[in-house]
Specification:
This protein is an alpha+beta fold. The protein contains 1 helix and 2 strands. The chain has a domain at 1-25. The two termini are 44 Å apart.
Length: 78
């Protein structure tokens, strides 16, 4: 029981020191970089950098009157 206590206490100390060290090196959040609903819509991503599918090009399967599904991430056959 004392060994378990020592392991848990040691892990807590290590996590506390690590998070403290990381927090000191992190920059303060800049409120000017946050998007709001009143901001204009930005340009679409560059397909050369980020592969994406437009919403109108998503392939839906199933009965439109009932439930439809779409693969949004990964390969459905795997």
């Amino acid at each position: 029981m004392q060994t378990l206590f020592k392991v848990v206490l040691s892990a807590g100390i290590v996590l506390g020191l690590t998070s403290s060290a990381l927090a000191q090196g992190a920059p303060a959040p800049n409120p000017a970089t946050k998007a709001t609903l009143s901001d204009p819509e930005g340009p679409p991503p560059n397909p050369a950098n980020v592969p994406f599918v437009l919403p109108k090009d998503i392939k839906w399967t199933g009965d439109p009157a009932r439930q439809q599904t779409a693969v949004l991430y990964g390969d459905q056959s795997k």
